[in-house]
Amino acid sequence: MPVTLLSVQKVAVRYGAIQAVENAELAVAAGEIVTLLGANGAGKSSLLNACMGLVPLAGGQVHFDGQRISGTRTEHVVRRGMTLTPEGRRVFPGLSVADNLAIGAAASPQLRRETAARRTEMYDLFPRLHERQKQLAGTLSGGEQQMLAIARSLMSNPKLLLLDEPSLGLAPNIVDQIFDIIAALRARGVTILLVEQNAELALDIADRGYVLAGGRIVLSGTPGELRASGLERVYLGAH
Ligand SMILES: Nc1ncnc2c1ncn2[C@@H]1O[C@H](COP(=O)(O)OP(=O)(O)OP(=O)(O)O)[C@@H](O)[C@H]1O
Ligand SMILES: [Mg+2]
């Protein structure tokens, strides 16, 4: 049996009167790529942020790698081996590529000691970032900023990477490059939970998927099962 890395049990997220996530159940096993699909406002980012401890849980529990992590601080979650590349490729625009990467390794003294070695690995994985290591992040193209955002998350050497809409707003050839990198990461042993608007692309690469609608998981299964259900049309507004 594969080891369950992430287990989300009956998770709820509320913002005042808004119920963003309700009773969500989700699991990711080591080595998997799992995709979380859903329309705008379905609660995808809220669920990822709740796993990271970035928004409080209104109910339920999250376990990672055999330990309960809900209720702990985000730095603790990162040190345990789970990290998030947030929506909107947030980089520090006034800092260089190299300094942005260093921030990704700031969660513990041990990670900080490994900064140089990890950065070399990231430059290997993202040659464009290598060429631009001294460039200010704010002057990178959108695709390069997304690569930097992913590389920065990988600086903490995660077992599980949560990716929130990595392809949003990027040209098709850059999207292909990002998906090639996702496949390369899996080959390197990184487990991935991928939130995507582009259901087709996500289902092509994923082992399993979940569909969120109105804050609830309404469907889960293999890519074949999800495609056969036709539900992604309803929930994703696919054409
Ligand atoms: N900080 C916040 N305060 C109040 N409401 C919020 C907050 N963040 C999200 N929401 C609301 O919670 C619901 C779910 O939002 P969320 O960002 O999780 O959706 P999403 O599935 O990630 O959408 P998208 O595909 O547009 O990124 C939405 O109705 C949104 O308006
Ligand atoms: Mg979102």
From TrEMBL:
CDD domains the UniProt entry points to: ABC_TM1139_LivF_branched
UniProt keyword Nuclease, yes or no: no
Record Pfam families: ABC_tran
Keywords per UniProt: Amino-acid transport, ATP-binding, Nucleotide-binding, Transport
Entry superkingdom: Bacteria
Domain ABC transporter: start-end pairs: 3-239
MF GO annotations: ATP binding; ATP hydrolysis activity; branched-chain amino acid transmembrane transporter activity
GO biological process: L-amino acid transport
PANTHER family listed in its UniProt record: HIGH-AFFINITY BRANCHED-CHAIN AMINO ACID TRANSPORT ATP-BINDING PROTEIN LIVF (PTHR43820:SF4)
Protein name per Swiss-Prot or TrEMBL: Amino acid/amide ABC transporter ATP-binding protein 2 (HAAT family)
Organism field: Dongia mobilis
